[in-house]
Amino acid sequence: MSHSYFTRKLLNIKDKNITFSEDYLEEVKLNGITSFIFKGILTYQPTHCQKCGTLFDSKFKKHGFKTSRIVIPKVSLHDTYLDLKKQRYYCGHCQSTFTLSTSIVEKNCYISYHTKHAIALEAKIKFLNVISHVAIRSLIQPSIESSIAFMNLKP
Ligand SMILES: [Zn+2]
């Protein structure tokens, strides 16, 4: 198994078109906070042009890369990002260019689905903690008051 395979496993990335080169991980300070940046490459042969819909043929040419920084779930409690180099293509039929897309993010979005899910889960856990705290307080409260009342009865 390649290190790309293990990195995808670690980051929970299902898209096999994303690979990681040798120096794929960098530890940097962003706004004074130690953060991890994973560097991935997205490349595959598109089935058709995203602009005109023409099926892939010899008139399609690779046209450099576009890098986006995507927020992904924390690794070892560090803010973690994926710098994803996405392959661009030129379509000779409509003379336009387009960037390959991946299933880990919505188009033009820089927060991964997993991060959105983690944020929603964290909010839910915080909410449940508050609710259970309130519930426990309301259960304990009467017993504390009754034991104080009981103590006050003692001579
Ligand atoms: Zn086209």
TrEMBL record:
It comes from the Bacteria. Coiled coil: none annotated. InterPro entries: Transpos_ISL3 (IPR047951), Transposase_Znf (IPR029261). Pfam families: Zn_ribbon_ISL3 (PF14690). Residues 45-94 form the Transposase IS204/IS1001/IS1096/IS1165 zinc-finger domain. This is Transposase IS204/IS1001/IS1096/IS1165 zinc-finger domain-containing protein. It comes from Turicibacter faecis.
